[in-house]
Amino acid sequence: MTTDAGGAVTAGRTALGIELGSTRIKAVLVGPDHAPLAVGSSDWENQFVDRRWTYSLEAVWAGVQQAVAALADDVRRRHGAELAGVGALGVSAMMHGYLAFGADGELLTPFRTWRNTDTGRAAERLSAEFGVNIPHRWSVAHLYQAVLDGEEHVGRLDSLTTLAGYVHRQLTGEHVLGVGDASGMFPIDAATGGYSAPLLDRFDRLAAEAGAGLALARLLPRIASAGEPAGELTEAGARLLDPTGRLRPGTPLCPPEGDAGTGMVATNSVAPRTGNVSAGTSIFAMVVLERELGRAHRELDLVTTPAGDPVAMVHCNNGASELDAWAGLFTEFARALGSEADPSTVFEVLFTAALDGAADAGGLLAYNYLSGEPITDLEEGRPLFVRPPDSRFDLGTFMRAQLFASLATLRIGMDVLHAEGVQLDRMFAHGGLFRTRGVGQRFLAAAIDTPVSVGDVAAEGGAWGIAVLAAFATRRAPGQGLAEYLDTAVFTGTGLHTVQPDPADVAGFDAFVQRYVAGLPVERAAVAHVGTGHGRAGPRATETETTPTEEQPA
Predict the structure, then answer these.
(1) Name one GO molecular function term (predicted).
(2) Measuring CA to CA, which of 43, 120, 337, 395 is 20 to 30 A from 140?
(3) d(CA 122, CA 367)
(4) 39: which strand partners?
């Protein structure tokens, strides 16, 4: 921990990271040694409006301001100092999605998040035309779907960005994006580090064929790599962060990044043959590649690290939200019995019980699909639990089935990487799913048959990761790369807890995932025949998410 933390705060020898995750907005202040000095957060939730997942821009700023105010209170309480300025600042957020603005800066259509999967026609056509997998979540898929649907706002487009890019632009006036986040908008040319020029031209021709005159290169943010300057906090930006006026303008900002990139930083997983799994509302693996893959795979995104190195991303829209919903039910039951067990205790009891469940989940089958899941070709989801009459049905086995379900789609994508011959030296895990020691970590090791490590610094997640990127931009030595900086300045002496895959668990998960794949027609039938509820704004889990879906990042 930083010595004389109050002095570091007063002198501005700090870096502030803000990350907008799917259920929490988090701010982390780090000192000269990158150790967290203070933390602030606010909760928020997506809304399901007109059959699309969205957040309002008003909620963005309300949440950011609450998180920064809570951080300032934490600084005052811990260190007896006032937060008036910081040495560096960085913003991160959920990747992908669609934020489209007109020439006057007006939002042309409600924010369409990564969770929306109504871009199937666009993703399929672009993937075929580009020869590169374009997932449903990517910004270019959202844009092309709007073109195909003849949406009126397309003709008024002036700029397109991600959530991190939007917040950064409001703080600095700079229309810029870190390369990792940009790589989830449009394919990156590995040779130039910029958007692929031939594919930009191809997109413009496809848009013209559909009746839209677009020049995509002029709409997208410029790209910056980790360590490059990306603007300074303006007076208006400082007021957006802190309406009280205590926060001084002039702070340098690093390039805004996506939560996948900050998760890589938070787990020191930016070098080839390293990877990390982040588990919150969604669950995804990032694997840094040594070489290009043999061909395109619809299960894999090809993105980059914040430094621009190639990464294969296995992104599953559905992570731990269904676990949260079941934990909420058990909490309600406990209260009905007169127990006031807090949610974290309920999670710990349920997760620990899973360790005693049948190795293959006893014939039970669960799907955690609150929303669509492109990896398994589902445009919508319905949470589902089914069992044969002769199955083993006890609490431990039930919870093991639910935990296995949260990892099963990830396993399907990781199998594609293994078939490509991709090898890993280490896999790190972070997120609420791994908070109960030795449970989620053990089951992930079984799912991917690879040792899994959990670190003690990554507990602060992507908000800490973007704070580290902000520090890197202002403190790195000339010519020093991100991987070297993390190894020598950030992660020295960091403790790791590593779990080896247990053979019985590996065999059990293999049996479960075979049932899972075989049972997918049941999930598809549920989508076809079960409606979305009684006019609610969204599934119940989005309203009650607590421990396992807490974003780490954010």
Answers:
(1) kinase activity
(2) 43
(3) 26
(4) 28
